[in-house]
Amino acid sequence: MTFQPTPETRLSLDLIEELIDRTQVFASEETVGEVFDRLRSREGDFFGILESGRYLGVISKTQIGMLLSGRFGYALYAKHPINAHLLKNALAVAPGDALLDVLDRALSRSGAEFHHDLAVVDSEQRFLGMLPMPTVVRLQNELIAEQTRRAAEQRHALQHRELQLFRSQERLRQSEGRFGILFENSPLGFALLSTGGRIEACNRMLAELLDLAPAAELPRFDECVATRDRAALAGIFRGFETCLHGEPPRSMELRIETLQAEPRLARCDFH
Question: pTM for the complete prediction?
Answer without folding.
Answer: 0.57
